[in-house]
Amino acid sequence: LKLCGGFVMHHLEDMNGVDLVLRDIDQVAEPYQKLGARFIVLIDDVYTNLHTGERERPKELDEVGWARLIETVNRSQERAESYGLQVVFHPHADTHVENHQQMERFLAETDPSVMLCLDTGHDAYTGGDPINFFEKHHKRIPYLHLKSIRGDLREKVLREGIPFATAVAQGMFCEPSEGEVDFERL
Predict the structure, then answer these.
(1) With 0-12 CB in 10 A as exposed, 13-18 as middle and 19+ as buried, what is 97?
(2) Are 6 and 117 contacting, i.e. CB atoms less than 8 angstroms apart?
(3) Bridge pairing between strands 173-174 and 148-149
(4) What's the sign of the alpha-carbon dihedral 26, 30, 31, 36?
(5) Cβ contact 9:56 at 8 Å
C-alpha cells in the first residue's frame, strides 16, 4: 500500500490560518513524500459543534474572511508545490465551502493550480449533485472520495435538525450500492 494523500485542517479564514496551514505542510510534506503521497487534502474547519449542531462560528463568511480563506488556500498550494505535492481542497459539510454555490465561487477565485477533492457523499449530503458537478469541473478534480448517503435519513436530518456527527453515527454514509449517488453514471 502507498499513501495517496493526507489531511491538513484548520479554520482557513482566521488571521493565523495561513501560518498554521503552512507550518503543518512543512511538518508533513517529507513523511508524505516518503510514503508515496502526491496530495495534501486541505479542509476548512467546521463552523458547528458536530455533535450538538450548535453554531460556534458564522455559517457564512464576510468578504474579509472569504478573502483570507482564498489567500490561505493559494499560499498552501504554493508551499505544497515546493515539495512536489498538490493541494486538493475538500468541500465538507458544516464548513464555509460546502455547497455548489460556494464551490463555484471557490474555483473562480482560487489559482487554477488549486484542485478539488470531490467527496460525493458530502456533496450529496449538502444537497448537491456530485455527478453534474464532476462533469462540469473534472479538470480540477484529480481526487475523489467515493461515498453515498441514505436519502431517507438525509430528509430526517433536515426535518429534525440532526447534527452532522449524529447523522453519520446513524448511518448517513452507506454502502455505495445502497445510497443516492449513481456510481455507474459517475
Answers:
(1) buried
(2) no
(3) antiparallel
(4) positive
(5) no
Give dist(CA 98, CA 6) in Å, integer. Answer: 20
Q: Are 83 and 109 in contact (CB under 8 A)?
A: no
Q: What is the Cα–Cα distance from 103 to 127, expressed in whole angstroms?
A: 13
For residue 184, give every residue at least 6 positions away whose Cβ sits within 8 Å of its Cβ, in sequence order, or none.
none
Q: What is the pTM of this model?
A: 0.94
Amino acid 45 reads: D
Q: In the structure grid, which three cell numbers stand for residue 127, read together? A: 444537497
Which triple of cell numbers denotes residue 74?
A: 493559494
Q: What are the pLDDT digits (tens) for 80-124?
A: 999 999 999 999 999 999 999 999 999 999 999 999 999 999 999
CA distance 114 to 105: 13
